[in-house]
Amino acid sequence: MTRTAYASSQVELRHARRVTLLDLLDRLLAGGVVVRGHITLAAADVDLVEIDLALLVAAAQKVMEP
Amino acid sequence: MSLLVYGITDRLHPGCSNHGLGETRLRAISEDGLFAIVAERDGMAIEPTVEALCEYEQAIERLMAGEVLLPARFASVLANEDSVRSMLRGRAAELRGALDRIRGAVEFGITAGWRTEMSTVATVDSGRAYLLAQLARHRRASEIAELLEPLASIARSSRHRVLPRPGLPVTGAYLVDERDAEEFIELVAHVDEELTDADLVCTGPWPPFSFAEEVSG
Fold it and tell me: Which of B180, B202, B210 is the mutation pick for testing A, counting most A CBs within 10 A?
């Protein structure tokens, strides 16, 4: 999955790829049209996006390993 | 049997006979000229793993090939076909408006990161110095947001956040006409060259996830 349209020459490729993956995950978890009846994946009183992104950062880094 | 909704369109296209998560077969349910692209959930657990999210995004991409699709938020499940039809009927005007808003456009993301560690204000040792450092960081992040304004001018719609996290002065999402995508990326490079203390990463093109819902204010 490479969808980095542009990265400053100061930015390492690895960092740019990580930003790209996190950007995608953020969109998928927090974006899209909300269909009524949407299943809540989060634990009670815990913000879904925050908790998932926190967990996913580690997973994402693992995926991005060459 | 519950159904996982992938997206909504007003034009059926070959992509809807494709597959979704776990190779499940996609199909369309129509109501009042709108189509929901769905797959049987069939007891399948829908966990937000990196792999599942990427697989979901790829299914959306296939569905979007050459056609408009309002992507559904990941893990949108409705109880049955009647629920889907009811949703399409009840929200027809809103969904048509959203489809018109994103038709022919893609989304780009912008992340601005500090070049030097301006976020490490914790190293200052007095309360006053800490607050001044925070203020300087906020001020500079706002200036960077202003420098990004030309990007919004060629986008159909945009939104940004100033200092969403200490290490990121600005993040933004831009809905751009497909025909303007190249120009948008060139402009990102131009703006990036003018930044002395921050660097830009532009991601995309993505399905317009950030613009599927109208945001007020």
Answer: B202
Measured at the CA of B98, the angle between CA B3 and CA B177, to 5 degrees, comes to 120
Rounded distance between C-alpha atoms, residue B141 and residue B165, angstroms: 11
Cβ A3–B205 below 8 Å, yes or no?
A: yes
Which tens digits make up the pLDDT trace of B72-81?
A: 998 888 888 9
Ranges of residues in chain B with a pLDDT under 70 are: 14-17, 43, 66, 117-125, 214-217
Q: Is the dihedral of CA A10, A15, A19, A21 positive or negative?
A: positive
Answer yes or no: pTM beyond 0.95: no
> Which chain A residues contact residue B209 at CB under 8 A?
27-28, 30-32
Across the interface, of B76, B192, B203, the residue whose CB is closest to A35 is B76
Instruction: Say what the pLDDT of residue B39 is.
Output: 92
In chain B, which residue's Cα lies nearest the Cα of A35? B76
Q: Which two tokens stand for residue B28?
A: 């369309």
Task: Please write down the long-range contacts of B36-39, taking CB distance under 8 Å and 24 or more positions apart.
Answer: B36/B5, B36/B7, B36/B8, B36/B84, B36/B87, B36/B88, B37/B5, B37/B6, B37/B7, B37/B8, B37/B9, B37/B63, B37/B69, B38/B3, B38/B4, B38/B5, B38/B6, B38/B78, B38/B84, B39/B3, B39/B4, B39/B6
**Residue A39: its chain B contacts at CB < 8 A?**
46, 75-77
- Beta-bridge partners for B7: B37, B71
Q: Rounded to a whole number, what is the distance in Å from the CA of A45 to chain B's nearest CA?
A: 18
